[in-house]
TrEMBL record, chains A, B:
It holds the Pfam family Peripla_BP_3. It comes from the Bacteria. It comes from Paenibacillus chibensis. The keyword Lyase does not apply. Keywords: DNA-binding, Repressor, Transcription, Transcription regulation. InterPro entries: HTH_LacI, LacI/GalR-like_sensor, Lambda_DNA-bd_dom_sf, Peripla_BP_I. Residues 2-56 form the HTH lacI-type domain. GO terms for molecular function: DNA binding. Transmembrane segments: none annotated. The lineage of its organism: Bacteria, Bacillati, Bacillota, Bacilli, Bacillales. This is LacI family DNA-binding transcriptional regulator. The keyword Nuclease does not apply.
C-alpha cells in the first residue's frame, strides 16, 4: 500500500506539504495541490485514519452502547444508527452493557481512548460522571435525561394506552407484568399501565420479572397463570414476554383473545408472524436509531440545534391477541 | 484529564521515558519505572489508544462485518464475538454489509484505515482481493473459504438431516424453499436437502426466495401454498421463513404438524416460543461467534494454530411442527 512518503516523492514535494493538502491545515499553492492530488490518485493512496485523527484531532468513529443486541428490539435501533452513520461517513465501535454499570463505564472509557467523536448510549445512569464528564457529544437513546440530547419513545403513554385499550375490549381481571426494576423504560410502561387502570377503577395483579431474557420469559409466563389463573388480560413488559405468555396461554388450552387478551410492547419484527399475531404498543425502533445518529452528527458538526430531546410516538398496533372493540365497546 | 506530560512532570522524568514505560519499547531502570507507575496511578492517567497504536503499531480494535444485524441469527453471533473480545480486551468496529459487495469493500477499507488488527467477516466473497490483500488476520464466520481461518456450521449436512427427518416422519409432498442465491450457507442447506430427497427417491417442489427479510417472508409463504396446495412438508431456508410458513399454514386452517410439517434452520431464540414450537436445525450461533473471536485473538497473538477451520455441529432440534417418529416410522 502507498504511504504518504510515496505520495510526496511522486509529487516532488515534502511530506509536510502532502499532509497539509490531506488535512487542510495550511496554505498550499494550487499547482502544488494539483500535483499532490494527482499523485494520490495515481498511487491509490488512502490516508491512514489514525494518523489523520492525530493531525486533525478528529476521528470518524462514534461509540454505540446498547444493553443487549440479542433482545430483538435493539438490532432495529442499531441498524437505524448504523445506516445514518454510514451515510454520514462515520463508523461505529459497538458494545453491550447488559445494563451493568461497571461494564458500561469500561466501554465508555475505551470508546474515549479510541478517540470517538461522539457517543450514543442506552443507559440507566445518564447522570453519572461517566457521561457528565465526557467532553464529546452524547445522545441518550431509548432513555431520557433532563434536557440533555436524547431520542426516546413515551413509555408511560404507551403503558396508559395498553391499559385503556385492554379495558375497552372487556378485560376485567388484568395482570400487569412489571419489567426489570433497574430498566427505566420498563418502569415507565409499568407506571403508565397501572395509572390508567387505577384511573378507571379497575383492579389488577402484578407479576414481577427481573430481565428481558428469552429463557426466563417462559418461567414468568407459567408463574402468571399459576398465581392468577383467572387473568383475562395481560399487559406484558415487552414483546418477548408477551410471546411467552401467548405460548403458555395456548399450551393451557386457553383461547386468545376470547379467554385472555395480550398486549406487548415494542413491535419486534416477529410479532406480526405469531399466531394469533401479537397486538402491541409499537416503538419506531429503526427511526429512533436514525434520529439519534442524525442528532449526534449535528452535535459533532456543532450545528445550532433547537430541539435536542426528540420524543417519538408510540402507537397501538392492533392485531389478533385482542378482541375487536365493537364486540365489547 | 491527565496527559503524558503531567505524568512526566509528576514523576520527574522525560515524556520519552514515560512513553517507554507505557509502550514497553526500551530499557527503563526499575526505580524510574516505579516512579512513572506511581505517577500514572496518582493522576489516573489513561494512555491514549490512538497515540499508543501509532507507537506500538497495534490497536486493540477488530472489525466485525455481518450481513444484517436485524436477522435474529446474527445478534447471537455478534454477542458471542463481543463477549470473547471483551474478555480479551479488544473492541469491535461493526458494520452491516447487506450482502452487498460494494458496502462490504468500503467497510473493510475503513476498518483498515482505523488500524484494526484483525477482521471477522461473514462474506460471500472470501476470494476477492478485499480479503486476499489484507495483511492482518481474517476469520470468516458462518462462511468457509478453502483452508483459510473460518468458523462455520455444516449447512449441507443440516439440509440433509432436515430432509431425512421429514421423510422419516411421513411427508411425501415436500416443498423445499430455496434461500437467496447469493448467500452461500442458504445454498448449502438447499443442496443438502434436495440431495437427501433425491437419494430417497422422494419428489419435491422448490419455491425460490431472494432474501431473509421478515416482510417478504410472508409473501413467499403465501406463494408456497398457492402454488403447491398439497404440500405436506416444508423445509424452510431459515427460521424467519419457517415462522412465516407456520403463520400462513395456520391461517389457512391447516393442522401443523398433522396436515403439514415444517422444519426451520438456525434455532433463533423465538423458535421455541412459537405455537406449535418450531422444529429446526440448530446452529450454535453464540458459540460460533465466540469460537471465531477466539481464533482471531490467537491469530493476532501469532500463536501456532493447528486447526484454523472450525466446523461446528448442526443438530436436529425436535419440537412440535413435526410429528413424532414412532407415529410413522
Amino acid at each position: 500500500m502507498a504511504t504518504i512518503r510515496d505520495v510526496a516523492k511522486h509529487a516532488g514535494v515534502s511530506v509536510a506539504t502532502v499532509s497539509r493538502v490531506i488535512n487542510e491545515t495550511g496554505y498550499v499553492h494550487d499547482d502544488t495541490r494539483k500535483k499532490v492530488e494527482t499523485a494520490i490518485k495515481a498511487l491509490h493512496y488512502t490516508p491512514n485514519e489514525v494518523a489523520r485523527s492525530l493531525f486533525k484531532r478528529k476521528s470518524r468513529l462514534i461509540g454505540l452502547l446498547l444493553p443487549d443486541i440479542t433482545n430483538p428490539f435493539f438490532p432495529e435501533l442499531a441498524r437505524g444508527v448504523e445506516d445514518e452513520m454510514q451515510e454520514n461517513d462515520f463508523r461505529i465501535i459497538f458494545g453491550n452493557s447488559d445494563e451493568n454499570m461497571k461494564k458500561e463505564k469500561e466501554y465508555i472509557q475505551t470508546f474515549v481512548q479510541n478517540n470517538v467523536v461522539g457517543v450514543i448510549a442506552s443507559t440507566n445512569h445518564p447522570d453519572t460522571d461517566t457521561y457528565r464528564k465526557l467532553n464529546i457529544p452524547v445522545v441518550f437513546l431509548d432513555r431520557t435525561a433532563d434536557n440533555r440530547p436524547s431520542v426516546y419513545a413515551d413509555g408511560r403513554e404507551g403503558g396508559r394506552i395498553a391499559a385503556q385499550e385492554m379495558v375497552a375490549r372487556g378485560s376485567r381481571q388484568i395482570t400487569v407484568m412489571q419489567g426489570p426494576k433497574h430498566i427505566r423504560p420498563a418502569q415507565d410502561r409499568f407506571k403508565g399501565a397501572i395509572e390508567a387502570l387505577s384511573d378507571q377503577g379497575i383492579a389488577f395483579n402484578v407479576v414481577k420479572t427481573s430481565s428481558f431474557s428469552f429463557t426466563e420469559a417462559g418461567t414468568w409466563a407459567k408463574e402468571l397463570f399459576e398465581q392468577h389463573p383467572f387473568t383475562d388480560g395481560v399487559i406484558a413488559s415487552n414483546d418477548i414476554v408477551a410471546t411467552a405468555v401467548l405460548h403458555e396461554a395456548l399450551r393451557l388450552g386457553k383461547n386468545v383473545p376470547d379467554d385472555v387478551q395480550i398486549i406487548g410492547f415494542d413491535d419486534i419484527p416477529l410479532s406480526s408472524l405469531l399466531t394469533p399475531s401479537l397486538t402491541t404498543i409499537r416503538q419506531p425502533a429503526y427511526d429512533m436509531g436514525r434520529a439519534a445518529a442524525n442528532l449526534l452528527v449535528r452535535l459533532i458538526d456543532d450545528v445550532n440545534i433547537d430541539n435536542k430531546t426528540i420524543q417519538m410516538p408510540v402507537t397501538f398496533t392492533e392485531r389478533d391477541t385482542t378482541r375487536k372493540v365493537n364486540q365489547h365497546g
